[in-house]
Design a protein that fits this description.
Alpha-Beta Plaits, four-stranded antiparallel sheet, 2 helices, elongated
Length: 138
C-alpha cells in the first residue's frame, strides 16, 4: 500500500520525556504513540537517549547504573500543521514534565512497503520529490 498526500511542507513534532514517565499506569511513550496511531497520524518513532537532562537538571546516563533509572526519550511525528496543532491539547494533558518542539519539515518521501512493483517502475507521484525551495541558495 502506498501512502499519498504527505509530501511537501509539514510539521515535525518532537516530544522529550523520561523513560519512567507514566500515563494512566502505562509508559507515557506507549500512550503517546498509541494516541497518534489511533488518530491516523502518518507515523511516530520513539528514540532512547544514552544521556541527557531536562528542566530539573538531573543527569541520566546509561554509563552508570545509578543514573540510568530514567533515560531520555524522544517521540517524533511528522504530519500536517493542522493535525499536529489539533492533538497538542490532548498531549499537554498527558505530560507532567517534558518538552515539545515543532519545526517545519520538507517531506520528500513517504511510502509503505511495495509488493506490487519493483522500484524502477514507480509512478511519478510516488517518487522522491526534491523540488522546491528547501535547498539553501549559495
Amino acid at each position: 500500500m502506498t501512502m499519498r498526500g504527505l509530501k511537501g511542507e509539514r510539521v515535525l513534532m518532537r516530544i522529550h520525556i523520561g523513560e519512567r514517565d507514566r500515563f494512566e499506569g502505562k509508559p507515557l511513550y506507549e500512550a503517546l504513540v498509541n494516541l497518534l496511531r489511533t488518530r491516523g497520524y502518518a507515523g511516530a518513532t520513539v528514540f532512547r537517549g544514552v544521556m541527557g537532562y531536562g528542566a530539573s537538571g538531573r543527569l541520566a546516563t546509561d554509563h552508570m547504573e545509578l543514573l540510568a533509572f530514567d533515560l531520555p526519550l524522544v517521540i517524533e511525528c511528522v504530519d500536517t500543521q493542522e493535525k499536529i496543532e489539533a492533538i497538542l491539547p490532548e498531549i499537554d494533558l498527558m505530560i507532567d514534565a517534558g518538552l515539545i518542539t515543532l519545526e517545519r519539515a520538507k517531506v520528500i518521501l513517504y511510502r509503505g512497503k511495495r509488493n506490487d512493483s519493483p522500484p524502477h517502475t514507480l509512478p511519478e507521484e510516488d517518487r522522491i520529490d526534491i523540488t522546491g525551495d528547501w535547498k539553501q541558495q549559495k
